[in-house]
Amino acid sequence: MALLDIRNLNLAMRSYEGETQILHGIDLVIERGEIWGMVGETGSGKSLTGLSISRLIPTPPGRYLAGSIEFQGTDVLKAAERDMRRLRGRHIGTIFQDPTTNLNPVFRIGTQIVDVALHAGHADPTVLGLSAGASRREFKRAAREKAIEMLDKVGIPKAAERIDDYPHQFSGGMRQRVLIAMAMIGKPDLLIADEPTTALDVSVQAQILRLIHDLVAERNIGVLLITHNLGVVAQICTHVAVMHRGRILESGKVGDVLKRPAHVYTQALLNSVPTVHTKRGELRGLSGLTPESFA
Amino acid sequence: MTTPEPLAIPRRNQSARLENWSRAFYRFRQSWLSMVGLAIVVALIVLALLAPFIVPYPEHVEGVTNTAARFQPPSASAWFGTNALGQDMFSLVLVGSQVSLFSGLAVVFIAVVVGTAVGAIAGYFGGWIDEILMRVTDLLLTIPSLILAMAVAAALGTGVFNMIIAISLTWWPAYARLVRGEVIGKKEEQFIAAAHALGAGWPRILCRHILPNIVSPIIVKASLDMGFAILTVASLGFVGIGVKPPTPEWGTLLSGARSYMPDYWWTAVAPGMAIFLAVLAFNLLGDGLRDVLDPKARR
Amino acid sequence: MLLFVLRRLVLVVPILIGLTLLLFVVARLLPGDPVGLAAGPNATPELIASLRQEFGLDQPLPIQYWTYLTGLVTGDWGMSVFTRRPVFEDVLTYLPATLELVFAALIIAVVVGIPLGLLTAVYRNGVLDYATRTLALGGIAMPRFFLGLLLQLAFAAWLDILPLSGRYPLIEIPPETVTGFYTVDALIAGDWYALRIALAHLALPAIAMALSPLATIMRMMRASTIEVLQQDYVMTERALGLSNRLILFKYVLKNAMTSTLTVIGLYVSWMLGGTVLVETVFDWPGLGLYATQAILTQDFMPVIGVTLVIAIIYLFTMLVVDVLYGVFNPKVRYA
């Protein structure tokens, strides 16, 4: 049984102009220890695939036409909302793109991370190192200790003091570390990271990627890393899936796909990455490529 | 290199400003609540204008009493019943709409004129003129306006005109604040600098260039305030200050009905509903205008 | 923050001085002769002259103002020409009744308005949403005094479950005065009967006063909640499994409160200024009725006194709002 098994996922979204199909039969299997990079242009459906895994797309306006998403054997598209909540935060952790807007500005970071820890702890007390019969107070104390430990682990200096600070007192990179701590505190089996480094400085990007990489290695979890940056994929991913217009054009081991791209789109994508040897004025874009050209 | 073709600007059959207004009206029509408000407002104004000609018992409005027919419940001959003096409530409420609507309009008009003048001068000149005018404005804003209006109206003596003066006195500061802020914002824009460069004096810049560009927020506030002006007029009447009988006015009518309340409820319901309807209609109209003219405030 | 509060309190002093000056000038500019009215139509010129002397009205205006201003500090707010009672004592007598009414209305408006705003934002375009929005449109347009009359008609006259008017039955003795709030005093005395009576009398006027602020608070809350629900952090909170209840009533509520707070503050002064309307309907012995009485006899000192009290409460409310603003939004620096 795979950790995550997406089969023939078809999603349509309704808007004022009518219903448009966004995802056209996505197939993806993620095992523990694998870091999957999902690359594609803006609007190719990467993020919606990620959100579908925790069933975070409201229906309506969304509508699943066909397919299934099995997480550890249960189909999340058919699960009860209560079971889904137990998955979120505990078994599936999520990080989004912009650390400046994804932390609630009017609450201390401690409050936010402790609430997530408590949620995960209620789903499974062992996450906080407690047994099922623990009292409320024990839960609260354990959650706070765990939060400090986690903040320390993601590299927040003086975590025990800074836990009572507000988000605006942290830099962008530090806030993303806090968000990673929030996503990882429930000891998830799968981490979905939606463009986690896009809004950060290049030097901070590398630190965050290293952090994610180390956490995966330590806990042997699966990761779906959504990005439009092939450099990121080449750095830390084990596998890659190339998305375009709601379809996965090509997927497999990073080495295979990036070295010997089978698909014209992947080739074009790779060619558009500037290298040190690229001359001025040689930047290449992707244009005129419609899904039909790959049919 | 070829000489560029002279750029042809397509001729329009209406000015840009006019086009903006017609587009605004189109959007206004899209909201049926605003249209309902507009319809009621128009109906009320028409009724108020026609009141002298369609009132069923004109003599009751003059103060004639008919004690034989006192406290008649609503019927075909007296739609809203009769009051303690046997007067037809429908006639009183109908004619009363003249005082209420006219006073509301007058209050808002005076407040807009005075407030705009004060605010524009304070905002345009700044410095100590601004300081003095705005300190006074702020002080007036801290005073509970209804109590001030009551005190002034009582001191000036009864009468529609005095009441209008009293309420206007408490209403202009809000407009002064609004206009001052808008003028300060517009003063810095390029087209004002251009007008300066062309040698325009301050009256021209203020009246021809700045004020036409800040009409929208003033209209929005004025239309939203119309309902509350009518409400304030009725409030003064209700507490016994302002218009005195026999001049029919909704608040005064309601106040008179209070003594006979549980048993002869219709004497209160008719004027009360009239106030409610008028305020509601102007609020709906004002909301609609705000959505159209002030897109930032739209929710 | 303490420094901020102190600085604001100091700033109140010049505002109050300016306010008294303005009121004094307005009061003297207006036509009207309180002494003549108080002395009656048959008073001799000598009597009127002696009365004028007694109340210091024969002094030049600057001297009168100075006397008043120095008196303010010592609790001498002038005398009512009509009742010959000191204004400060009267204000202290009537203020608790008004404040009790305003607080009760404020509690109703906030406790009902905020959750309704939240819920209608979540279940947007549902039945509850349309019903409350229609009611809100009506609620804002409903005159307080007419609503009061209708409530009296329904609950006192027809259903006969609540008293028609007044603050406490005239033939009974209200609970011993500690705060002047009958409900609080009854609680302090442990007198459940008195509490029930006081609440029954308070209910209708408080509802009449609360409807319009309730409707506005609800509309504000709905609008700001809709805005907050679209923020990224709400998605993160959902993605990490927090329950909808926790997200809504903890994380969204605090964010949505900030813009509603100002409206609540403004409504305190709106209610205080318009308290006379509800007090007239329900014969509620508060500042409004006191002021009306004084206005009708053109008795300036009580009117100035009431206006001053309301202005002080208004300034104080605005200070509380600003402090709360900082509580709800940690980014606000007190400067």
Structure description:
The complex is a heterotrimer of chains A (295), B (299) and C (335). With 295 residues, chain A is α/β, with parallel strands linked by helices. Chain A has a domain at 99-187. Chain A is built from ten helices and ten strands. In chain A, the strands form two sheets. Chain A has a six-stranded mixed beta sheet with strand order 6-7-8-3-9-10, with helices on both faces. A four-stranded antiparallel beta sheet of chain A has the order 2-1-4-5, covered by helices on one side. Residues 290-295 of chain A have low confidence and may be disordered. Chain B is an all-alpha fold and 299 residues long. Chain B has a single domain (88-297), classed as MetI-like (MetI-like fold, Orthogonal Bundle), CATH 1.10.3720.10. Helices cover 72% and strands 0% of the residues of chain B. The model of chain B has no long low-confidence stretch (mean pLDDT 80). By secondary structure, chain C is mainly α. Chain C folds into two domains: 2-73, no CATH class; 88-328, MetI-like (MetI-like fold, Orthogonal Bundle). In chain C, 76% of the residues lie in helices and 0% in strands. Chain C is built from 14 helices and no strands. Chain C has helices at residues 2-29, 34-39, 45-54, 61-73, 87-122, 127-141, 144-158, 182-189, 192-229, 232-239, 244-273, 275-282, 287-296, 300-328. In chain C, α5 packs antiparallel against α6. The termini of chain C are close together. The model of chain C has no long low-confidence stretch (mean pLDDT 83). The chains are: A alpha/beta (295), B mainly alpha (299), C mainly alpha (335). Chains in contact: A-C, B-C. Chain A binds chain C through residues 54, 56, 85-90, 93-94, 96, 98, 101-107, 112, 115-116, 119-120, 123, 166, 168, 179, 182-183, 186, and chain C through 231-233, 235-243, 246, 250-251, 254-255, 258, 328-331.
Structural key phrases:
heterotrimer; B: 299 residues; mainly alpha; MetI-like fold; C: 335 residues; 14 helices; 0% strand
Helix % of chain B is over 70%
Q: Which structural category do the helix and sheet elements of chain B fall into?
A: mainly alpha
Low-confidence stretches of chain B: none
Please trace the helix and strand order of chain B, writing H or E for each element: HHHHHHHHHHHH
Structural class designation of chain A:
alpha/beta
Q: Choose one word for the global shape of chain A.
A: globular
What is the CATH topology of chain B?
MetI-like fold
Beta-strand level of the residues of chain A, as a percent range? 15-25%
Largest sheet of chain B: none
Oligomeric state of the chains? heterotrimer
Distance linking N and C termini of chain B: 53 Å
Q: What is the overall silhouette of chain B?
A: elongated
Number of helices of chain B: 12
**How many beta strands in the DSSP annotation of chain A?**
10
Helical segment tally of chain A? 10
Give the tally of β-strands of chain B. Answer: 0
Overall pLDDT metric of chain B: 80
Proportion in helices of chain A = 25-40%
| Major sheet size, sense and barrel closure of chain A | 6 strands, mixed
Rg calc of chain A: 20 Å
Question: What are the low-pLDDT stretches of chain A, counting only 5+ consecutive residues below 50?
Answer: 290-295
